[in-house]
Amino acid sequence: MTRTIRPYRPEDLPALYDICLRTGAAGGDASADYPEEDRDLLGTLFAAPYAVLEPESVFVVDDGHGQAVGYVLGTADTAGFVKRFRDEWLPTVADRWPAPDGEPATPSEVMASLLHTPERMVVPALAGYPAHLHIDVLPDFQGAGNGRALMDAFLGSLAERGVPAVHLGMLTENVAARAFYDRLGFHEITVPEAGVLTYLGRATS
């Protein structure tokens, strides 16, 4: 059966958690970085809140059998999303992953710290790019145009809603991802004290 790009459905949520974990180490499998009880942490931070709070901004690669094997997800309004994350999403997961005391010492603690500080997503240098996104595709389905098709669906959806531009933050070390974004017309945005991240942006149309 032919792979297709389609809107997210609620039954895709477990797959979003799985994809996020299996691509969470600069594009590679991050499963070994987290104990079993924390395997859902990456998805809780970078995938599920978008699907729950803004499902209209989520698209998946369907393998032809109903299984999601890649996704693009994000928000049309970063500032508004951050408020909803704080008010609506965080209370549902905070007890499972409390904010660490002191400096985070493990990958789980680093992610838990990020979970409890959603306001970090509001960056003044990115004000001209109000939307943001995350995109991940399982390795077996990369290199076949799926990433570009996902991005076309997401950008088209934003453009239809009058959103002018979008940004993303990526690990600078992920050179394969950078090459992908460059091919799609993203450009680097100077963000002070970006640390291990590089920020990219582009117009939605």
Structure summarized in a few sentences:
The protein has 205 residues and is of the alpha+beta class.
Q: Low-confidence runs (pLDDT<50, min 5 residues)?
A: none
Indicate the CATH class. Answer: Alpha Beta
Query: What is the CATH superfamily label?
Result: Gcn5-related N-acetyltransferase (GNAT)
CATH topology: Aminopeptidase
Counting DSSP H or I runs of 4 or more residues, the number of helices is 7
State the order of secondary-structure elements, H for helix, E for strand.
EHHHEEHHEHEHEE
Please state roughly what percent of the residues sit in beta strands, choosing from under 5%, 5-15%, 15-25%, 25-35%, 35-45% or over 45%: 15-25%
Note the overall shape. globular
Tally of strands? 7
Coarse structural class: alpha+beta
**CATH architectural grouping:** 3-Layer(aba) Sandwich
* Major beta sheet, strand line-up: 1-2-3-4-5-7-6
Mean pLDDT: 96
Measured between the Cα atoms of the first and last residue, the distance is: 31 Å
Helix content: 25-40%
Rg measurement, Å: 16 Å
Largest sheet: 7 strands, mixed
The domain tally reads 1
